[in-house]
């Protein structure tokens, strides 16, 4: 005989919990035993162990076999259905009995989809409005409270022993930046003394309330809490994040749009089908953007490095007359657990800037286009963030402030194959992309055109107007030294163009 697991759907947890409590059974998260195995000896067998938090650990199998095997087979184990599906294989040697489902026997009315407020824990989470935070912070400091972000204790668990619990307020807003919220939060908060007070930005409530169901039994607003008195007044410090006026493709008059498409076709080498598709996409986008049904035009471009994916964004930027920098984010730098904070800004309590790279880049550009390069290298938290951006048409920073991207074009590029696309990108996010296309190596004639364009471009920048003879000489030199058919990556071709141009300079005395 082995252990058995009972599954519940996320929407059914509080009903499931209520039914268990009516039977005299409490549901306890496994996390508290993972970090303190000795507690298993004190465990009451009438309680049920919820193993959902295991999904947040990379080494699920070894943890499960080490911890769960210490429980008797008669003990009760439960898990959220969606999280079980991601780790059932890793736990195949622990749970050998047939899986049961609590949810499949339930009938639902429309109003039953929303969970009830949880009950049965011993902590309260208080939510504040980001508009009132500065006033709240000043008021609490006057009352000798210290506010700190939970982030420092996540990275340095040993600091928990040093905090002054009676005057400490922990802001947990930054937890939304973690892909495994439940396991990260439970690992730390179980270690805090009972006197610690917890607060959070109210814009994070929907995302955190369910994940923290084993930690908090009450969720309340700041005006309902003991932290402020009836005589205390919180002043609003509302701050709107204004995106500077960008030139948008939706704002172009018909004649300018026609000129844009002509210039774009000349600027982007190869990919004729994409050019046709892009023109159709833009025309459709402009119509439905005006009636507020389509806020952002999103393109997901796949293919090998150096085949022109990022050049699409540069071509759009230049053909719209961009004079500043193209807003570009390389997601190769955003693969770790803290990537969302780096992208949209640090949460309250962090040391450093409140602004993130993506907000700074969009503010500093003059054209309504955003390039997200190497998108597949990011993580689930970032995927979910852009799911919201494409749905709402707005970016939200760590303080809950919004930047309107209505009328923008966002281009996501990736080196993944067409076969890997559905494996790496969730169905929900895939459905949000307006265009999904595979870029292939340029044809020989397109590479030749690019070579000629680069020759003319370089000469115009260096020869101060005396270009005709030099262009002809440089093209002859390039044709003798460069076989475009050898190149599959246009970046490699461009590197050799630069190298051979320097040789041309030394032979033609152009430097003098």
UniProtKB/TrEMBL annotation:
SMART domains: AAA
Protein origin, superkingdom: Bacteria
Example GO BP: proteolysis
Keywords noted in UniProt: ATP-binding, Hydrolase, Nucleotide-binding, Protease
Keyword Protein biosynthesis tagged: no
Residues annotated as domain AAA+ ATPase: 295-443
GO terms for MF: ATP binding; peptidase activity
PROSITE patterns assigned to the protein according to its UniProt record, in alphabetical order: SIGMA54_INTERACT_1
InterPro entries the record matches: AAA+_ATPase (IPR003593), ATPase_AAA_core (IPR003959), ClpA/B (IPR001270), ClpA_ClpB (IPR050130), P-loop_NTPase (IPR027417), Sigma_54_int_dom_ATP-bd_1 (IPR025662)
Keyword Acyltransferase found: no
A Pfam family that the UniProt record links to this protein: AAA_2
Signal peptide boundaries: none
Name of the protein in its database record: ATP-dependent Clp protease ATP-binding subunit
């Amino acid at each position: 005989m082995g252990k058995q697991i009972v599954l519940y759907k996320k929407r059914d947890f509080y009903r499931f919990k209520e039914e268990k409590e009516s039977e005299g059974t409490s549901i306890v998260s496994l996390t508290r035993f993972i970090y303190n195995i000795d507690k298993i000896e004190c465990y009451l067998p009438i309680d049920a162990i919820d193993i959902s938090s295991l999904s947040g650990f990379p080494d699920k199998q070894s943890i499960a076999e080490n911890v769960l095997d210490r429980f008797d087979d008669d003990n009760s184990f439960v898990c959220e259905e969606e999280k079980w599906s991601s780790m059932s294989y890793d736990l195949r040697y622990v749970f050998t009995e047939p899986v049961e489902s609590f949810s499949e026997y339930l009938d639902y009315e429309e109003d039953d989809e929303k969970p009830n407020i949880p009950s049965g824990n011993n902590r309260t989470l208080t939510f504040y409005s980001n508009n009132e935070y500065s006033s709240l912070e000043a008021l609490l400091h006057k009352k000798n409270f210290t506010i700190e972000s939970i982030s420092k204790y996540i990275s340095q668990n040993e600091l928990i022993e040093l905090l002054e619990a009676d005057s400490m307020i922990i802001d947990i807003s930054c937890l939304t930046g973690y892909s495994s919220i439940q396991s990260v939060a439970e690992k730390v908060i179980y270690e805090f003394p009972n006197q610690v007070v917890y607060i959070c930005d109210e814009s994070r409530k929907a995302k955190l309330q369910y994940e923290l169901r084993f930690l908090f039994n009450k969720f309340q607003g700041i005006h309902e809490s003991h932290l402020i008195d009836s005589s205390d007044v919180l002043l609003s410090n509302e701050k709107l994040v204004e995106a500077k006026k960008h030139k948008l493709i939706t704002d172009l008059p018909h004649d300018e749009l026609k000129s844009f498409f002509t210039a774009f076709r000349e600027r982007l080498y190869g990919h004729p089908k994409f050019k046709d598709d892009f023109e159709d996409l833009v025309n459709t986008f402009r119509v439905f953007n005006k009636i507020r049904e389509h806020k952002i035009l999103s393109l997901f471009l796949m293919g090998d490095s150096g085949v022109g994916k990022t050049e699409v964004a540069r071509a759009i930027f230049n053909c719209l007359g961009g004079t500043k920098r193209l807003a570009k984010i390389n997601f190769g730098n955003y693969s770790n657990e803290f990537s969302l904070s780096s992208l949209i800004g640090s949460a309250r309590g962090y040391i450093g800037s409140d602004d993130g790279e993506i907000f700074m880049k969009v503010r500093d550009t003059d054209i309504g286009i955003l390039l997200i390069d190497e998108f597949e290298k990011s993580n689930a938290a970032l995927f979910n963030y852009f799911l919201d951006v494409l749905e709402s048409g707005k970016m939200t920073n760590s303080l809950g402030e919004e930047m309107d991207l209505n009328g923008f074009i966002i281009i996501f590029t990736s080196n993944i194959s067409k076969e890997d696309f559905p494996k790496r990108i969730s169905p929900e996010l895939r459905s949000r992309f307006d265009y999904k296309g595979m870029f292939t190596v340029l044809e020989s004639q397109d590479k030749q055109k690019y070579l000629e364009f680069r020759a003319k471009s370089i000469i115009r920048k260096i020869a101060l107007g005396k270009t005709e003879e030099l262009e002809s000489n440089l093209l002859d030199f390039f044709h003798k030294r460069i076989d475009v058919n050898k190149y599959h990556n246009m970046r490699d071709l461009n590197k050799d163009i630069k190298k051979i141009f320097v040789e041309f300079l030394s032979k033609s005395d152009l430097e003098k």
